[in-house]
Amino acid sequence: MNAPTDGVIAIEHLTKDFGEVRAVDDLTVTVRPGRVTGFLGPNGAGKTTTLRILLGLVRPTAGTATIGGRTYAELARPMRTVGAALEAASFHPGRGALDHLRVYAPQVGVPDARCREVLDLVGLTAAADRRVGGFSLGMRQRLALATTLLGDPPVLLLDEPANGLDPEGIAWLRALLRHLAAEGRTILVSSHVLSEVEQTVDDVVIIARGALVHTSPLAELAARAEPSVRVVSPDPAGLDALVAAAGWADRTERTGPGSAVVRRVAAAEVGARAFAAGLELHELTPREVSLEGLFLELVGGGPR
Ligand SMILES: Nc1ncnc2c1ncn2[C@@H]1O[C@H](COP(=O)(O)OP(=O)(O)OP(=O)(O)O)[C@@H](O)[C@H]1O
After folding, report:
1. Contact between residue 118 and residue 146 where contact means Cβ atoms under 8 Å apart
2. How confident is the model over 111-165, as pLDDT tens digits?
3. What architecture does CATH give domain 226-288?
4. 48 lines ligand 1 (CB under 6 A)
5. Tell me, what's the pLDDT at 227?
6. 108 near 151, Cβ under 8 Å?
7. CB 258 within 8 Å of CB 236
8. Segment 275-290, tens digit of pLDDT
């Protein structure tokens, strides 16, 4: 791993049309090293297409997708720069786990000894000589991850890596990804369910219908999922004064003249303060939304 900018993924005004279908729509996103970033969206949102463009497998209609300032084709040592596991990897069923890695090692340009190292990293040492055909989905995920780690790349692109893992496997994956990010790597993990990666990611990039709908640290999104109260008053100035007097300005989102959403407050408290101030209210609605609920709201409820 070299300069800190080596691992920056920059997607700029990326668009991809498949005939009539716009799979990616003017997407601009920066993914930083040292963090695990969740790339989220419902089925068909354009995640895989974006990852495939990053890997030079699909040519964009417009815009660019670069890693450390270079397109995949421009990378001097692509397999030492990016490790990617897209979709359920297919393995030769008759081959052992170690032998599978040995096929890839020369392509990546790493010594044979590296194969055992990565098997160890993913906890498959005991299964080194077992035929991959008998592997569970979780074991295949581990082997796919081992393959991406062969070249010790500063950037990892993982498509639904938690798929098929049991809770213990998910906890293990979480710890490994955190460790790899702490080493300064850029880790982009796609998923169609936020809850699956909620414990793992630092940042989220959420897309729907090919376009960006939200990007922020996860904590910022989680704050929006806190209990809140929707308040509507026919007296916009009075509502503003109430919010200011209560010290809620930093937790209040104005949703229109005379309407606002106040976070981390109980409806009863808003009601009591409005009553004391003689402010007429037309609506006072408590709102409890889970992080997953918020995610579904953002992506507009389901696939295209
Ligand atoms: N090669 C292709 N030819 C035509 N349409 C395609 C092609 N690849 C993807 N699409 C379409 O582009 C859109 C985005 O698909 P994509 O696979 O990128 O979404 P996704 O977010 O990865 O979804 P999933 O989670 O289901 O993999 C979909 O409408 C899909 O049908």
Report:
1. yes
2. 999 999 999 999 999 999 999 988 888 888 899 999 999 999 999 999 988 887 8
3. 2-Layer Sandwich (3.30)
4. yes
5. 83
6. yes
7. yes
8. 999 999 999 999 877 8
Helices 137-149 and 167-182 cross at an angle (nearest 10°) of 10
pTM of the model: 0.82
Which residue lies with its CA nearest to atom 1 of ligand 1?
A: 18
**How far apart, in whole angstroms, are the C-alpha atoms of residue 252 and residue 254?**
6
DSSP per residue, 1-66: --SGGGG-EEEEEEEEEETTEEEEEEEEEEE-TTEEEEEE--TTSSHHHHHHHHTTSS--SEEEEE
Q: Domains of the chain: which residue ranges?
A: 4-217, 226-288
Identify the residue whose C-alpha is closest to ligand 1 atom 12. 23
- R_g (Cα) of the chain, nearest Å: 23
Q: Please count the other Cβ atoms lying within 10 Å of the Cβ belonging to residue 225.
A: 19
Which parts of the chain have pLDDT scores under 70?
1-5, 88-89, 301-304
* 108 burial via Cβ count (<10 Å: 0-12, 13-18, 19+): buried
Distance from Cα 140 to the centre of ligand 1, integer Å: 23
Token pair recorded at residue 28? 């601009």
254 CB neighbour count, 10 Å cutoff: 13
Instruction: Give ipTM to 2 decimals.
Output: 0.95
Tokens 């068909």 correspond to: 44
The CATH architecture one would assign to domain 4-217 is 3-Layer(aba) Sandwich (3.40)
Q: Which atom of ligand 1 is nearest to the CA of 58?
A: 1
